[in-house]
Design brief:
Structural class: alpha+beta
Number of strands: 7
Number of helices: 6
CATH superfamily: CheC-like
CATH architecture: 3-Layer(aba) Sandwich
Number of domains: 1
CATH class: Alpha Beta
Order of helices and strands: HEHEEHHEEHEEH
Strand content: 25-35%
Largest sheet: 7 strands, antiparallel
CATH topology: Chemotaxis protein chec
Shape: globular
Amino acid sequence: MNFHQKITALHLDVLKEIGNIGAAHAATALSDLLNKKIDMRVPKVEMVSFNDMMELVGGSENVVVGIFLRIEGDAEGSMFFVLPIEQANRFIRRLIHDETFDFANFPVSELGLSAMQEMGNILSGSYLSALSDFTGLKIYPTVPGLSVDMFGAIISIGLIELSHISDHVIVINTSILDDEFEDKESVRGHFFLLPDPDSFEAIFKALGVA
C-alpha cells in the first residue's frame, strides 16, 4: 500500500496546523521586512496526484516563479514554493518599490531576484522549523534556488525519486495578505513537499502513521 493511501483527514489536519504555525512565524518575518502588517494562512493541506498537482498551477507548461530547495537532516527530500508570475510580480514590486519590475522581462533585475529568494528563505525556513518542532526530527533547508520556467521543468527533479514509492505529493496551500488589500487580492501560492523514499516513512511515522 502506498503511503498516500494511509493518510487520513486527521493527518492532513495535523499538517495544516504545522503549516499555520510556520505561517505565523513567516508572517512576523515578512512584516519586519516590508514594515507593514502581513498575515499568512494555510487554508488547506491535501495529498494530490501528480496530474492534479500539475493542474493546480495551470498545467505542466505554465510558466511560474518557483523557489526550490533540498531538505536535509533526519528527513530528506525536496520542497518547492510556486507562484503565478503576476502574483510574484505584485509582491516583489511592493517589496523593492519598483512598479516596472517583471519576472517575464529578461534580464530580470538582481534586486528583484534577491528579494524573491529572501522570501523563499523566510517561507521555507519557517515551515520546516515548525515541522521539525512538531515531529522531533532535525530538518533544515539548503539555500533556496530560484527559477522562472515551465512548472513541469521546475518540479521534475523532485518527482523522479518520489515516483518510486508513490504518485502523490503533499500540497500546502498558502495565502499571504496585508491590511492594504482585500482577501481576494492576496498572494496565493503552493508549497509542494516531496520527501525522498526513505524520508517519507520517517515523516509520517513521526506524525503517527504506521
